[in-house]
Amino acid sequence: MRGARSLPNERIERALAAIDRAIAAAPERDGASFSQAVQEVSAVRDEVATHGRATPEARRRLDTLNAVLSMILAGHFPLGAPPWDEVRKARGWLAEVQL
Question: Full-prediction pTM beyond 0.90?
């Protein structure tokens, strides 16, 4: 049987893979990969928010996930050229999230 934390971690892995595909497609924008990353990170963020923000660590995770989501959305729906450096930074932040 899977542990309680395996699903969010699997979602993080899928989000990282989607971000990697989006970055690999640069300078073209891979909308499908950005969409998948948004869905996966949003689901993890919602789970973290649902299970409470009682500890400083949980609040930090939520802040990080919100920042990652903002950068992925900026890449998905850029006002100009996609902000690839910020997308790469967000990928690194997501890789450091531990649930």
Answer: no
